[in-house]
Amino acid sequence: MRIKPITVTAVAILALTSCGTADNPPATPSDKNGAEASTAAPATLSPDAKASIRAAAGLPDDPDAKDRQAYLDALNAIDPRIIKPGKEDQAVSRGINQCGSIKNAKDEAKLAQTAVKRFTVDTRLPDIANPTTGKAINKAVHTHLCPSF
Asked: Is pLDDT larger for residue 88 or for residue 7?
C-alpha cells in the first residue's frame, strides 16, 4: 500500500488541529460563558513524529545545509523568481513533496506539469510555465533532495 503526500498532509493537519465536540466546543474570545481562548502556540510535531510520517509516505528527510543550499541555488539558476522572496523553507517543503511525485511517477509530462503547478509557476510566472521548466525543477529536486528515488 502506498501512502500519497495528501495523506501525510491530512495526518499532519489532524495532528495539529484541536477539535471540540458538540458538548465541548473549543473556546473562542467571543465565548463569554466559556473558558478564555488559549494564547498558547499550537502543538507541533516532534522530529521523530515528522520522520515517522515522512517515512510512511516514502518522503525523504529534510536536506542538510549543503544539499539545501545546492537545491535553492539550482532553482535560482532555473529562474530566480521560482523561490518567492523570503520563502526558502516553502521551496524546500514543495521540493520534498515533489519527491513523492517523482518516486511514483509513470508519466514524465505529467510530472513536469505537477512541478510547475506545485511551485505555482503556472499562476505566478506564466512566461516560464512550460514542460522545460517543470523538467528542470524535477531535476533540481531529484538531484538535491531525493537522489535515491
From this structure: 88
Distance, CA of 45 to chain centre: 15
55 compared with 98, residue with greater pLDDT: 98
pLDDT of 90 over the 70 cut: yes
Write the DSSP assignment of 31-73 as a string of letters.
-TTSPPPP-SPPP---HHHHHHHHHHHTPPPPPPHHHHHHHHH
148's enclosing H/E stretch is none
How does DSSP classify residue 119?
T
The position carrying cell 509557476 is 121
CA dihedral 46, 52, 53, 59 (to 10 degrees): 120
| Number of residues assigned to the chain | 149
Q: Is the full-model pTM beyond 0.85?
A: no
Q: Please tell me the distance from the alpha carbon of residue 132 to that of residue 49, in angstroms, as a whole number.
A: 36
**Cβ–Cβ contacts within 10 Å for residue 114, how many?**
19
> CA-to-CA distance for 109 and 135, rounded, in angstroms?
8
